[in-house]
Design a protein that fits this description.
Blueprint lengths: L1 H28 L4 H6 L6 H11 L5 H13 L13 H36 L4 H15 L2 H15 L22 H7 L3 H38 L2 H8 L4 H38 L5 H10 L3 H29 L1 H6 L1
Helix pairs in contact: 1-13, 5-6, 5-9, 5-11, 6-9, 7-9, 7-11, 8-9, 9-11, 10-11, 11-12, 11-13, 12-13
Length: about 325
């Protein structure tokens, strides 16, 4: 297993290098000047402009700026925000719990509904149940996040008044962060009404963010189950007189889990990318909204380092998924 993990880490290294280059270049091609953006409407004198360029290293050759950026990142220094003057890593760690909580609920929502839907569609292959479930999954996958979010807000918040429009919790509650997770902190403070408010605020963002992963997981589960249900050992289990639930749950589902687990892991990137739009629509105070605001403020340090940190998190999750399905099926790590 150790050799398997080391091999995966060796494969990740070129990806990390590529991501640092992409993040660095992306920021450099954005329009505008970060020094002028930082100065704001008051402007800056030529002498002050030259001093700030030297202070932030923008006067150095582009290759030297890149290596200084990578070397600082390796030491855990992701720079200081041009707009808030706070360390980027500190801001990220403050806001990330909000994004993680939303992503976690969206993941649970997509897995709890997606896996059973795929299983039922595979078992009832060709029936109206299968066609309905897969047709719904296709519609969900094709739904633009911004349109889907606004539609739910208009109907459930505006017309029915069932759910809040924005934020993480009602304004009447003020909870000093303990874990950063609003649902957990409200319980730690013993405020059940605040916990209910936090859950109500999570409903619509969770549905919007989890719809596309749900559709992908459902279709992948159906495909994997159909392949497994045609195997000889499944037919043998049925011939032995085992109950359908035992055949599907014990023999078929376990072997179909490997591509499904891989798909779930790959959806982390989709969830984090979707969080940018979802958090903007629902004014959710997470890293997605923070990144969008930083782009408008021309805070290039935040954009550059935020992209890198998010990419590192996605790669870490994918590595964890690789290890997980190597545990599920030991033949994978032997082959690797």
């Amino acid at each position: 297993m150790l050799r398997f993990i080391l091999n995966k880490l060796a494969l990740i290294l070129p990806t990390v290098i590529g991501i640092t280059i992409c993040a660095f270049v992306f920021v450099r091609i954005l329009p505008g000047d970060p020094i002028l953006a930082m100065a704001g409407e008051h402007g800056v004198t030529p002498e002050r402009y030259a001093l700030l360029r030297e202070q932030f290293g923008y006067n150095l050759p582009i290759w030297e700026q890149y290596f200084r950026y990578v070397w600082a990142a390796l030491q855990g220094d992701f720079g200081v925000s041009l707009s808030s003057k706070r360390p980027v890593l500190e801001q990220f760690l403050t806001l990330f719990p909000a994004t993680f909580e939303l992503t976690l609920f969206a993941s649970i929502f997509s897995v709890i509904l997606g896996v059973p839907a795929g299983m039922i569609a595979a078992i009832r292959r060709g029936s109206w149940v299968d066609q309905t479930l897969m047709g719904t999954a296709l519609v969900g996958y094709s739904m633009p996040i911004f349109w889907w979010g606004l539609l739910l807000i208009i109907f459930f918040s505006g017309y029915l008044g069932w759910t809040p429009v924005s934020g993480r919790i009602a304004l009447q509650f003020f909870l000093k962060p303990i874990t950063g997770f609003m649902t957990i902190d409200s319980l730690l403070y013993g405020k059940f009404d605040a916990f209910v408010s936090a859950l109500r605020h999570l409903v619509l963002p969770t549905i919007v963010l989890g719809t596309i992963p749900l559709a992908v997981i459902a279709r992948q589960t159906r495909s994997a189950m159909l392949e497994v249900l045609g195997e000889d050992y499944v037919r043998t289990a049925r011939a032995k007189g085992l109950s359908p639930n035992r055949v599907v749950g014990l023999h078929a589902l376990r072997n179909a889990l490997i591509p499904v687990v891989t798909t779930i892991g790959l959806q982390v990137g989709t969830l984090l990318a979707g969080a940018i739009l979802t958090e903007t629509i629902f004014s959710w105070p997470g890293i997605g909204k923070w990144m969008v605001d930083s782009i408008f403020k021309r805070d290039y340090v935040v954009v550059q380092s935020g992209l890198l940190i998010i990419a590192l998190i996605v790669m870490a999750v994918n590595l964890l998924v690789d290890v997980l399905y190597a545990v599920i099926n030991p033949r994978i790590r032997v082959a690797s």
